[in-house]
Amino acid sequence: MPDVKVERILEDPELYIIRVDDDRIKYFEATWDIPEGITYNAYLMKLDGATVLFDLSKAEYTDLFMEALEKLVDPKEVTHVVIHHTEPDHTGALPAFLEANGYKAKLIGTSFAKRFLEGFYGEKVVENFYTIKDGEEMNIGGKTFRFITVPWLHWPDTMITYVVEDKLIFSCDAGGGYGIPETIDDSNEEVVQRYLPHVTKYIVTVIGHYHKYIVQNIKKLKSLGIVEEARMILPGHGLIWRKNPMRIFEHYEAVGAGKTTKGKVLVIYDSMYGFVERRMNIVLDELRKHGLKPVVYKFTDKEAPAVSDILGEVPDSEAIIIGASTYEAEIHPRIRYALYEIVDKANYEKPVLIVGAFGWAGVAGKKIETLITRSKFDHVDTVESRGMPRPEDEERLREGVRKLVELIS
């Protein structure tokens, strides 16, 4: 059952989190399998003469969100709403909130945000909208709010808020992740260790298409001197970072840059009747002989892993090996879908070895090779042959792995 957590996280300034835990969702953006669920984090800050709400929640949880908000404040007393990002998982409850607020609150966001809100919810919601400029500062309730645009993390409308006196960064999607952590913040290392893989998966699936902007925007924030001095990073999903605020941006940087884990090789393949799998067993044997640690995802008549999980493994892999059957003069459909998403969402400069098997004509290997050579990935070799692998096929497979190993050694 979806739940809501309301917790006071700072005494001065008086700051609360309203976290809706969504364990009912199955496919984020109607695409990505997330059995781990997700949270929608909003924050409420009470100041002298002002009450500021940072983001809201998804439309289907409007009642849950409004009940939690009303325990903290009469909605009519909210004076400002900061819209960091207009995606409906953060703004779906906005129309109901404004009704309860009497449309008194000033909405603050980027010019893109105003346009998107108008498109999503109509003209009335933006009647009292203030459009910020990048780096603009505003005094609200005796605090200095600095608004910094971070476009394409992961929409063009995205911005963060830095509260200057208290060194707080409200970062919305930047710094977020999938999952419903047991704690509100990063104080428990075991929780953090379980959570970080969900962050990687979130980055690749949600922001991956624009992953170069992760590095660019974090570089921008660092140049402003606010990341190193941040007292707390408060994202729109997942954990708050206050024990070690730098850690989440370092993790984002590492994923954005494709920083590798030594020895990790991602192996993906389909096998309808075992012919590809026999080839991949040779490949895996050769990888292990060289001391590498393959992480294997396979599509067979008994299993079909989530592509979102595969994507989450790409950034820190040193290399990728793709095995595919030729299927109706094409790449096997499950590998084809996984491959398209890898090239779109997790396109890094990493070596790729291609392995193929076919019944009467080989097509998959060449088609994968075309996709790989047009991407940032480095094509190492394509080893494709008919039916069961013969001794000469085995030697070509082992030689292909040795070529790949040379590139990552």
Can you tell me about this structure?
The chain is of the alpha/beta class and 409 residues long. Helix content is 35%, strand content 27%. It contains twelve helices and 19 strands. The chain has helices at residues 62-72, 88-91, 94-101, 111-121, 189-207, 211-223, 245-257, 275-289, 307-313, 333-345, 364-373, 391-408; strands at 3-10, 14-22, 27-28, 32-33, 38-47, 50-54, 80-82, 106-109, 129-131, 137-140, 143-149, 159-163, 168-172, 232-235, 264-270, 293-299, 319-325, 351-358, 378-386. It has a seven-stranded mixed sheet. Strand 17 (319-325), helix 10 (333-345) and strand 18 (351-358) form a beta-alpha-beta unit. Helix 5 (189-207) packs across helix 7 and helix 6 packs across helix 7 (245-257). It is elongated and about 80 Å long.
General form: elongated
Number of strands: 19
Q: What order do the strands of the largest sheet run in, or round the barrel if closed? A: 1-2-5-6-7-8-9
- Structural class by sheet pairing and helices: alpha/beta
Low-confidence stretches: none
Supply the number of helical segments: 12
Mean pLDDT: 96
